[in-house]
Amino acid sequence: MNARVMVLCCFGLSAPGLFDQVLTAVTAFCPAVEAVEPGVCAFGARGPARYFGGETALATRIIAALADLGPQPQTGVEARAGVEARAGVEPRAGVEPRAGVADGLFAAQLAARRADPARGRPVLVIPPGRTPEFLARQPVSVLPDQDLAGLFSRLGLRTLGDLAALPAGDVAGRFGAAGETAHRLARGLGSRPLALRPPAEDLSASQEFDPPEPLAEPVVFAAKALAEQMHGGLAARGLTCVRVQVRAISADGRESSRLWRHDGLLSAAALADRVRWQLDGWRVRAAAADRGARPAAPAGPDAADAAITVLRLVPDQVVRATGHQLALWGETVVSDRVARAAMRVQAMLGHEAVLRPVLGGGRDMSERVNHVPFGEKGEPRLAAGPPWPGRIMGAAPGVVYPFAREADVTDEAGDTVTVTGRCALSAAPAWLAADGEPPLPVTGWAGPWPLSERWWDPAAARRRARFQLLTGDGRAWLAAVQDGRWLIEAGYWLWASATRRCPGANCGGGWPGGLKGSSWRGLIRISAPPIRSRSCPDG
Amino acid sequence: MGSAPAEIRRISSARPRLSSAVEDSESWASGAGEVVTGATGTGTLPVLPALRELLPRGGLARGSVVTVAEFGLLILALAAGASADGAWCAIAGVPEAGVLAAVGLGLDAERTLLVPDPGHAWPQVVASLLDGCELVLLRPPAGAPAPQAQVRQRLEATLRRGRGVLLVVGDWPGAQVRLRVLTQGWTGLGDGHGRLRACCAQVLADGRGQAAVPRTRWLWLPAEDGRVTVAEPAGIPVPDPGFARRLQVVSG
Predict the structure, then answer these.
(1) Is B252 a domain residue?
(2) For residues B44 and B60, what is the distance between their CA atoms, to the nearest angstrom?
(3) Which of A162, A279, B91, B177 could link B207 by a cystine bridge, Cβ 3.0 to 4.6 Å?
(4) In a domain, B195, yes or no
(5) Strands (E), chain B
(6) CA distance B190 to B194
């Protein structure tokens, strides 16, 4: 005999936020509710029904309570229906809440589906012990296994009653475990017990802007109130969050989402500041992208598209609030003074303009230092622990180009120096001409030091031969040959001729990320056996 | 009382002086006025031992501007000493800064901020950074116009108020100390063999006031062990054609 189960269907309220409200409303009647699927929840009906004077009375009260959720469900229903229609999902019929009570979850779900609020019967109660009768009238198509249901109907088993009339052993022998499960369901047995748990609390705070808000200030103002609401919700439960996610959705559907370090230290005003920086950075980037895409586009429609419709603060990694203890030693504490300064610069230039270096592993000079925006917790992309064979040992270069500079290295005859797959040089390098500089005589060199990285991943594989070169003006260079081209990765100098200005961020001119995703295949035999290095710096 | 407004004016004009005097006395007494204190007292930020002789007060005087002609290891070494001592350091306008090399010299990456592109509003950015960091390494953007005297003076005022140090790559009229590398020579690299091991450099310091007398020092920057040391006269490699600047070969 199965326990009495009540199932509540409210497909119109199945949006995550709304359904959480439904679950919260239901927990006012019984403490433990299972969310079966979006819009459907189930709970044991025996105890609450006794308390509230019968199953019908309980269901009626719950449905009334859902109606009392106020105007939100109503607008929510419309909004949801609109969203579903846009998304190409057919809105489900029967958005009004309905309830069914029966022995077992399966029968209760069917009963809820058969309830008819349009005719004033939002609750269908199958009396105790009458569940098999109720089930026997249902068509086999209600079974969860649709393939099996189709097979049953082709075999002439139209209703669950027909199926239940068959001997259990024969059904199991012919249809296997799936058939046996269907048979048990048809007999009103074997519904699994409810997996009851209190609903996860929604601690986020969000606000919709209608009409969409084109200016940042009102959004930031709302963010402060939202932050207070979120902090209040967390504090009431004795919780705090490690990070907070700020999500903003614009009128044209674009979304900006960023995680900010919180650690329970941010005030509402500080959180509102972060929302401001995030929005500023987003706008700047969007404006730059628009300028790049459509140079002559008028600003008007863009501004309207970029208006904010939804702002949402979601606590991430919620933990118990244990107070905050400053580190005594070990961990570097960012003093308020430094944090204020860094954030002021972030407010001016954007979030990604102020970085903190995080040292990691890797074979390239540039990939061994990861840049993490200030205020975010950074992990190196490549762990520092592994040995990284092939990396350049010894003194680190003082100048590391974010993007390698193009160069040309020639021999005495003026031909570009090439490296074969077996790491044989065509000739000793005699002249080095970095882009934008006159050729310099090479007075010392070492290499080639071969490096073949990630050969198992065609997209990331690259083969290079690296050199250290010394030029006549006293400078030392770290250069590499890749795809038959010479690239300058780093420089060791203290001083360079005063006529030249180091080109800085745009030094990679025409070489954005060009180091990656290519190989020597074009010019060099790839099937060469392992390369013998003449002199290896880590040897 | 007719004299009350005058009295208020007098008091209000005295207040900044009083507060600065209190600040001075506190910082002189214990160094507690600073968030992060330097080991060698409050008047200077410490530098690596090998660089002490180049600087007039044995360190980077707080509130001063120090220039280095070119970006390279020398300016990173200047910053490394202070950072190792606990100062926050910001590097602005140098996207190609070799953080790894600086860390090798003593820079604490945990206490370093990088602003690779301060943009055209770099004076405001630097002023903000100076409010938080004691040491700001700046290379003014190449495309931006040279700093106006007014902009420079405002930055220098911020510098004195925050008692920080501004390290500038390039030229800065009115800098207290100017450093320049005269020659540099790497050892360890042969003709197709070896690897870069150490660099011997001759560094010239001059400037204004105490620094007016030019000083020249030979340094290993870096030495074989990765540190910065003073080069003994006997250890200085013999200049070869590729070593001295005057013998620079110009291609035809």
Answers:
(1) no
(2) 5
(3) B177
(4) yes
(5) 44-46, 59-61, 65-68, 89-92, 112-115, 135-138, 165-169, 177-189, 194-207, 215-220, 229-230
(6) 6
Q: Tell me: the pLDDT tens digits for A150-205?
A: 999 999 989 999 999 998 888 888 888 888 888 888 888 765 666 665 556 778 88
Whether residue B204 is contained in a domain is answered as: yes
Determine, yes or no, domain membership for B75: yes
Record: contact A537-B251, CB cut-off 8 A? no
Prior bond of B233 cis (ω within 30°): no
CB B79 within 8 A of CB B89: yes
In angstroms, the separation between the Cα of residue B94 and the nearest Cα of chain A is 7
Q: Which residue does chain A place closest to B162, by CA atoms?
A: A337
Which A-chain residues 400-459 have CB contacts (< 8 A) with chain B?
Answer: 400-402, 428, 431, 438-441, 443-447
What structural domains does chain A harbor?
A: 4-186 (3.30.70.270), 205-322 (3.30.1490), 399-508 (no CATH)
pLDDT tens sequence across B174-223: 899 999 888 888 888 888 888 888 888 889 999 888 778 888 989 998 88
Q: Give the contacts of A459 (CB within 8 A, at least 6 positions apart).
A: A517
Sheet holding A239-250, edge to edge: A205-213, A308-320, A239-250, A255-261
Res A404 pLDDT > 70:
yes
Identity of residue A165: A
Looking at the structure, tell me whether residues B53 and B142 fall in a common domain. yes
Beta strand A308-320 with A239-250 is antiparallel
The per-residue pLDDT for range B155-165, each reduced to its tens digit, is: 898 898 888 99
CB contact under 8 A, B242 and A472: yes
- Who among A357, A395, A472 is closest to B248 (CB)? A472
| HEC sequence for B160-207 | HHHCCEEEEECCCCCCCEEEEEEEEEEEEECECCEEEEEEEEEEEEEE
For residue B46, report the phi and psi dihedrals to the nearest 5 degrees: -70, 155
Tell me if A364 sits within 8 A of A381, measured CB to CB. no
Alpha-carbon gap, residue A367 to A486, rounded angstroms: 19
B16 CB-near residues (< 8 Å, 6+ apart)? none
Q: How far apart are alpha carbons B5 and A316 in whole angstroms?
A: 56
**pLDDT, tens digit, for every residue of B17-76?**
555 554 444 444 333 333 333 334 468 899 999 999 889 888 999 999 999 988 989 999
Rounded Cα distance, B204 and B179, in Å: 6
- Show the tokens assigned to A430: 């005699």
| B90 & B171 share domain | yes
